[in-house]
Amino acid sequence: MRAMILAAGLGTRLKPFTDHHPKALALVNGKSLLQRNIEYLQQYGIKEVIVNVHHFADQIIHAVQTNNGWGSIVTISDETDEVLETGGGLLRAKNYFIEEERWILMNADILTDLPLDKMIAADELFTQKAEGDLMATLAVTNRATSRNLIFNAAGTLCGWKNNTTGEEKWANPLKDINTAVPKAFSGIHIVHQTFFDAVELTGKFSMIDAYLQLAQHYAIHYYDHSDGILLDVGKPESLEKANSLFKP
């Protein structure tokens, strides 16, 4: 199995560090976020990784080359001409996954102890039980968030809600809103080849927008890891917390 780490973002929440560096190279106890996630994937036997780059791309490329990919085979997907967001970034890397039935997609600024082997096993089970083609399994928790993915009682994606503005987007509106299962997305996906077969969006777009469009016809499940650690290292104060949670 291969993986993609999304590292092209501008990281504006992590200023002033990102005024001069990409957020993927922010350090937690002496290791960059990128290194930590490459080593995290290695724990589960995933040693072929593609990393998309845009903001201070040369620094990421230099870090990967200097450290020999931290023990993994790391390919660069160059988005220096235009940052393509999560969905567009994956679509740009399509050829890297052409022979893969499924792969891991994750944000560079997420640190977690999510048991990826168990999530992969759950994805296999969902594939067997899915009514129609399974497109993806999304890691989620029950934490408070400004935006929720909404699943139905069967665990398949049906909508999205911005809890601050009240905006909602629906793929399959629920007949009974009381059956809604709101979850906070963790920024980690298992994506299937059916995504490339079905996606109609092009250029710059988010995976969430693509999922909401495609969930009308494909199954998208969730894997809940609320009992573990998940840290969005997007702000300076999050880096301080990460230093206390993740060892050198």
Break the fold down into its secondary structure elements and pairings:
Blueprint: E1 3-6, E2 27-28, E3 31-32, H1 33-42, E4 48-53, H2 57-66, E5 73-78, H3 85-92, E6 102-107, E7 110-112, H4 116-129, E8 134-141, E9 147-151, E10 157-162, E11 168-170, E12 181-192, H5 194-198, H6 207-214, E13 219-224, E14 230-232, H7 236-245
Parallel strand pairs: 1-4, 1-6, 4-5, 8-13
Antiparallel strand pairs: 2-3, 6-12, 7-14, 8-12, 9-10, 9-12, 10-11
Helix pairs in contact: 3-6
The N- and C-terminal alpha carbons lie at a distance of 27 Å
Report the helical percentage: 25-40%
Oligomeric nature of the chains:
single chain
| Shape by Cα distribution | globular
Total beta strand runs:
14
Total number of helices:
7
What fraction strand? 25-35%
Task: Calculate Rg over CA atoms.
Answer: 17 Å
Number of domains: 2
Question: N-to-C SSE series?
Answer: EEEHEHEHEEHEEEEEHHEEH
Mean pLDDT: 95
Contiguous low-pLDDT stretches (5 residues minimum) are none
The SS-based structural class is: alpha/beta
Q: Could you give a short account of the major beta sheet?
A: 10 strands, mixed
